[in-house]
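Quick question, first post here. What does this chain look like in 3D?
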Amino acid sequence: MHDLYYKGRIHTRVNHVKSGYNTKRDVRLGTSENPLSLTVTSDERKDEVSQLVEQHELVADISVSSDAIEDINQLTAIINTASTTTFEKTPGRNDPCSCNSGKKFKKCCG
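> Answer (accepted):
Ran it through. Tokens below.
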């Protein structure tokens, strides 16, 4: 029957949602739980890449293999993420003009 008739009973779906495994948890790449996996060709390059990793406060597993192709795509993707573009606020009609003419914006460039 419906919960309307049984007021003392806790609905099982609501109980599960309140205390259950969090399936929507987001684990960032480059943390200790999900480290970057990078491959480089020499020890000198490993030192350069490890300095970059430390600079950006990331965690990475760097393997050196002279046979393999260098793969640091995960690191470059995190470092070169796009930032939000901000624009200057357009002046109001009665604000002074940005071209330094001394006139109001509405009389000069507006």
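The CA atoms of residues 60 and 77 lie 14 Å apart.
The helical segments are 12-18, 43-55, 73-79.
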